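Anyone else keep sequences and structure tokens together like this?

Example one:
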Amino acid sequence: MTEAEAKALLSNRFNVSREIYAALERFVELVIQEAPNQNLISAASIPQIWTRHILDSAQLVPLAPAEGMWIDLGTGAGFPGIVVALLRPQPTILVESRRKRVDFLQHVIATLGLRHASVFGGRVETMPTERAAVISARAFAPLAKTLAVAKRFAADDTVLILPKGQSAHEELEAIYDLWHGAFHVEQSISESQAAIIVARNVRPRGTI
């Protein structure tokens, strides 16, 4: 997929308004400006930032309920957390432990005026418990660890949205004996070989 095609999808399939598109462009500028100072995204992915990071993040939003808090674990450079906050006017918490990235995310939030978004700067294990409607984690940890970390923030109707590249089916098979719930796999629209695990009512086996 070309960058032009990715931008067209954002406008046509996700109904991104001109105002939000301009904010996404500003976010891209901020990421590229900061890239020499810290390894926000790989240098090789910068020419494909709209496909590999913006569209890759935006495609998660239609998989989630429209209402309720969204928690993004290990948000890194703001993918998907900042993109989610731009596309969805509900409370969004970005969890990030690295100080320089926390500072960057706070700068982005202030620059873009995202008053419904905030950053928890620290390890997710130290974050106060919040009940989320949606939990996402992109390039965060293997599925088993992600579920173990996320369960404290999840209710029965919480939707977990976990981009997993090519490993989605293998990771699901690996956790079958440990976790149960309603799992399914969505094909990524930004990368033909990638997939997204979507899950509800997830709990360790042996619990009711």
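And example two:
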Amino acid sequence: MSVSSLGYIGFKAKDLPAWSRFGAEVLGLMKAPAREGEVRFRVDEQSWRISVEEGPEDDIGFLGFEVPGPQAFNALRDRVRAADIETGNDDRDFATKRGVTDLFSCRDPQGLRVEVYYGPTEQHEVPFVSPAGVSRFVTGEEGVGHVVLATTDIESTRRFYVEILGLRLSDTIFMRFGPDMAFELEFYHCNPRHHTLALAPIPAPKRLHHFMLQAATIDDVGFALQRVETAGVPVTATLGRHTNDHMVSFYARTPSGFEVEFGYGARTVEEATWRVVRHDAPSTWGHKRPMH
């Protein structure tokens, strides 16, 4: 039993107006109705995929993992409870707020709120239209994208996402940052997307290093890079291609300080034939970090 996708992501941010502009005008996301103190965005036919709630953290606020239906939902909730992990938000009012049929929440070993749900609201009668002209985002069974989380307890965090939620190892990258700092970055999938989650075993000022959006064409990436530069948004990694998922992408700083990766062309996992391998470099070319 496994979660089937990362269905939605929630952030806590100090500057909601900046996020409203950044999400729509720079990333090309479609604004969705939201309550006071929150900004929501659509990336496809789902009623929303990204939420930014007012808060001082400027960091990840919650992750929403989808399962196919009530049987999988009940089975996964039972497994979470059997592991002595407390669950909450079982009431219908909260599920209605999230726009899903049913939902429960729990916490990962470092306190991040994780929501498991089924039955999201889709709005085919109101087609997704990017205000910045993005042709399409790659979602569907692959979910909204991926997140990279820092953790100071890799073993318990890995156990939670693998043994409880059912994610599976895709590969690893050995990362070296000078003679005194190196670690293994671990990548996990739950559907054909190469990775839905990556774990970095390091202390960091923010739990979230970056989240990723995948567009349908290389031109979508090029136009997004132009919008970033025109808006004066800092580019934190230049255009490049990753070694493991082969995605062509760039990174930019969000209004909350963590990063967003905007990419195209990632390869997918064929579960029956996939081999776990390791890499000694994150990129085959590009993705240069600024010196200052």
